[in-house]
Write a structure and sequence with these properties.
- By secondary structure, the chain is of the alpha+beta class.
- It has one domain: Nucleotidyltransferase, domain 5 (2-Layer Sandwich), CATH 3.30.420.100.
- It has three helices and four strands.
- A hairpin with a 4-residue loop joins β1 and β2.
- The longest helix has 17 residues, at 62-78.
- The radius of gyration is 14 Å and the shape is globular.
Length: 111
Amino acid sequence: MSMLTKKQMRIRRHYRVRNKLAGTAARPRMAVFRSNKRLEVQFIDDDARVTLAGVSSSEKNQSAAKALGTKAAEAAKAKGIEQVVFDRGGFAFGQNLKALADSAREAGLKF
């Protein structure tokens, strides 16, 4: 039996999530990526395989996550996006992702 790394396990979780949801032009996928240094959000139309908008933070703390959620909602609204499908990317829905999602909802995104 081979041991899987944390990254391999996250990728497996992400595949399970992605099998159940997909973004369309009317309701794109809000994909969140969390690295060691920053958080990134992209709005993706999976039908056309196009990234509609994307924003990232320079830090990875809770206040930066809140600011990123607001900035992501503003970028989405600028592109005419009102509703999205939230894709946590296999990451745990912990403090930072919850803060990002809540601030995006408060800024007007529906998911």
